[in-house]
Amino acid sequence: MSPKKATEEECDKEAPKIEPPTDEGEKDGGALEAKMSLLNGITVIVGSIIGSGIFVSPTGVLKHTGSVNASLLVWIASGIFSMIGAYCYAELGTMIKLSGADYAYIMETFGPFAAFIRLWIECMIVRPCSQAIVALTFSVYVLKPIFPECDPPEDATRLLAACCILLLTFVNCWSVRAATRVQDWFTYAKLLALFIIIAAGIYQLCRGKVEHFTFEGTTSDVTSIALSFYSGLFAYNGWNYLNFIIEELKDPVKNLPRAIAISVALVTIVYTFTNVAFYTTLSPTEVLGSAAVAVTFAERLFGWFALCIPLFVAASTFGAVNGVLLTSSRLFYAGAAQGQMPSALTMVSARATPAHAVLAVALLSLVYLTVSDIYALINYVGFATWLSIGAAVLCLPVLRYTRPDLERPIRVNLFFPVIYIICTILVVAVPAVASPAETGVGCLMILTAVPIYLLLLEPRTRIKALGSLTGSSTRLMQKLTLSVRPKIK
Questions:
Q1: Residue 483: what are its φ and ψ, rounded to 5°?
Q2: Which residues are paired to 483 by β-bridges?
Q3: CB-neighbour burial class of residue 23 (10 A; exposed 0-12, middle 13-18, buried 19+)
Q4: Band of the pLDDT at 32, cuts 50, 70, 90?
Q5: Which residue has the higher pLDDT, 107 or 59?
């Protein structure tokens, strides 16, 4: 018997006995439960996509297109592009019904090494970095009314961001239902804020405020246009997050494609009309010069009510932090279930939550709060994120050829993944040419996964002595958190 197998059997033998939940019928003890409805799925996607960007600084698209009308076309095209990707993910998600989304698809299609590279970049850099940044944005806007004439103190901002992460960590460890309710209500709050802005924009349109809607100044530089799409697509990032928690979605074959279609269409409409509202009141110069476009817009139109906008932005970012934590923990869980992360992350608490995985995401995010320039890290690996999403979509035609036997409740026309892959290559390649230094650093970050894989995972080269150490730590965490491995159904 191998040391790894012996360690696993010891963990299972020493695991505390937890009674399976009795509400809503008998369930397998220690397993993640399908508690999320279609509405919960929609709010997870919408809440994950809409963060601080649309409120704070929608200047990237305008900067690279040069005109208001061209920027609006890019916002619409970015939404359509995201819908095509989401349509492809609908087939993948209903065909491979495993948490982890593109990690699970790449594992099934290209094997463990390619999947680990995707897992490493996403888990160790992109997700915790993103969560730290959104939490910092949350704290800045909560403190903004207290410090109206200056930026809030840096220490206070970081402390409040840490409190935000810790509070949502507790909620996600306590109950999946509580986490989805937080996601629901804060998604409603951010949509309410956007609808207020849109309503004000409609009022301005009725008054004939259309002088800024022209193609004057539109750039003809292909590189600049491609970079505008890069900015637009970044704002839509999150449309695939429901696939990460598909095991907890009720009737995924029916609800996953519905949730994706409704959510991405809704966000595309909201983003487009929000930008229209901004340009009814603010000139392109004012938009480019504003650090917080929504606040500037509100100050021009709402009078004293403009004070509410920073609070709406805070609600938006609070919900976004919860969405990242909810879905990222399932990616850690999926990686551990495949043996590519510590086995402790597969443990499920007595309340049917992956508490260890949630804690791992939270701790990494807290570490990144101490880094002075985490925005640069996100820029370095931004191209890697799109590259991995393109690789996941590539799984669809490859699996059609290699695994025709797989059940496919949804069958996408291959025209869509081909178009998506071609566009993804362009989106990745153009910024790489325009910013070779950042691309080089991003490649080095990706390559750090290689020695980790060889030393810890590859059977022929891994360090054997780590088995007993990880086994002891896993048993300790089981006892401290009263958790067990999920039963295989």
A1: -125, 160
A2: 349
A3: exposed
A4: low
A5: 107
pLDDT on residue 199: 92
Name the DSSP class of 355. H
Cα(71)–Cα(110) distance, integer angstroms: 37
DSSP 236-264: TTTTTGGGGGGGGBSSHHHHHHHHHHHHH
Q: What are phi and psi of 39, to 5 degrees?
A: -65, -40
* Calpha distance 422→415 (Å, rounded): 11
For residues 247-267, average pLDDT = 85
CA distance 302 to 465: 64
Mean pLDDT of 352-381: 74
More confidently predicted of 401 and 357: 401
With vertex at residue 268, the alpha carbon angle to CA 263 and CA 271, rounded to the nearest 5 degrees, is 120
Residues 433 and 223: beta-carbon distance below 8 Å: yes
Cα dist from 38 to 79, 248, 250, whole Å: 21, 11, 8
Give the DSSP H or E segment for 484: strand 483-484
The structure tokens listed for 294 are: 């929504």
Residue 440, number of CB atoms within 10 A of its CB: 12
Q: Which residues contact 336 (CB under 8 A, 6 or more apart)?
A: 342, 343, 344, 345, 346, 357
More confident residue, 17 or 225: 225
As a residue count, the chain comes to 489
| Rounded distance between C-alpha atoms, residue 15 and residue 484, angstroms | 6
One-letter identity of residue 256: L
Cβ neighbours of residue 175 closer than 8 Å, sequence gap 6 or more = 351, 353
Which string of DSSP letters, residue by residue, matches 422-488? HHHHHHHHHHHHH-HHHHHHHHHHHHTHHHHHHHHT-TTTS-TTHHHHHHHHHHHHHHHHTEEPPPP
- Selection from 374-383, 413-422, 476-485 with the highest mean pLDDT: 413-422
Geometric angle at alpha carbon 194, from 201 and 79, rounded to 5° = 95
Q: Provide φ and ψ at 28, rounded to 5°.
A: -70, 130
